[in-house]
């Protein structure tokens, strides 16, 4: 993966930020963790809407972590913690995370070789926080790529969220042309035995 990947706002981030904005009244006081945050648009929006946010990206990606920090400073949010977390690895930082209500991830399902490591991390966080949910947007890049079998393996369930339900089915979204003609999907992932509340 290009080391600059986490230094741009990608179309999925704009769509997830729109979902957060539409649900902004439910965010004050919620504990939110953004994984694979990069420039952190969804996490910044959540923080601006009153959520208690922690941003994270790969501990081996210092440029991405620096992008998180720069976004916080540019948006007058210097207090937001930025952590290095590597998907699939039980690091001291992952184990020490405070409780979370919502996990955010925009375009984290980018490279199929990472899909299981992402879901291992999400499963760990949801097991630790059984009522939490993982809100994620992803760009459909190949009809052959699927996480369905991995969701079953890790006892997770997903609900597809139609983009029109939060006014994100437009080429230009929130004054951004980024979503454009990309095929972007959103889903909410939770523990299979959880009621998802």
Descriptive labels:
197 residues, alpha/beta, Rossmann fold, seven-stranded mixed sheet, 6 helices, 29% helix, 20% strand, globular, MET23 protein, S-adenosyl-L-methionine
Q: Indicate the structural class.
A: alpha/beta
| Mass-distribution shape | globular
Helix content: 25-40%
The profile of the biggest β sheet is:
7 strands, mixed
The rounded distance between the terminal residues' Cα atoms is 35 Å
Order of helices and strands: HEHEHEHEHEHEE
Q: How many domains, as an integer? A: 1
Return Rg in Å.
15 Å
**Low-pLDDT residue intervals, each spanning 5 or more residues:** none
CATH superfamily: Vaccinia Virus protein VP39
CATH topology: Rossmann fold
Strand order of the largest sheet: 3-2-1-4-5-7-6
Can you describe what's shown?
The structure is a single chain. Helices cover 29% and strands 20% of the residues. It is α/β, with parallel strands linked by helices. The model has no long low-confidence stretch (mean pLDDT 87). It has one domain (11-191): Rossmann fold, CATH 3.40.50.150. It has a seven-stranded mixed β-sheet with strand order 3-2-1-4-5-7-6. The longest helix is centred in the middle third of the chain and has 14 residues, at 115-128. It starts with 10 loop residues before the first helix and ends in a 6-residue tail after the last strand. Keywords: Methyltransferase, S-adenosyl-L-methionine, Transferase. This is MET23 protein. GO terms for molecular function: methyltransferase activity. It comes from Rynchops niger (Black skimmer). Belongs to the methyltransferase superfamily. METTL23 family.
């Amino acid at each position: 993966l290009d080391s600059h990947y986490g230094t741009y706002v990608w179309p999925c981030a704009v769509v997830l930020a729109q979902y957060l904005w539409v649900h902004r009244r439910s965010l004050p006081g919620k504990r939110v963790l953004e994984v694979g945050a990069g420039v952190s648009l969804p996490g910044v929006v959540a923080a601006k809407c009153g959520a208690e946010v922690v941003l994270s990206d790969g501990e081996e990606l210092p440029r991405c972590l620096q992008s998180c920090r720069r976004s916080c400073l540019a948006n007058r949010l210097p207090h937001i913690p930025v952590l290095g977390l590597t998907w699939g690895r039980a690091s001291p930082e992952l184990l020490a995370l405070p409780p979370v209500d919502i996990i955010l991830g925009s375009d984290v399902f980018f490279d199929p070789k990472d899909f299981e490591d992402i879901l291992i991390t999400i499963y760990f966080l949801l097991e630790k926080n059984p009522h939490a949910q993982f809100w994620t947007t992803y760009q459909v890049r190949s009809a052959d790529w699927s996480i369905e079998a991995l969701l079953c393996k890790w006892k997770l369930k997903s609900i597809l969220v139609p983009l029109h339900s939060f006014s994100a089915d437009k080429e230009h979204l929130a004054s951004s042309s980024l979503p454009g003609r990309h095929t972007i999907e959103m889903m909410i992932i939770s523990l299979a035995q959880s009621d998802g509340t």
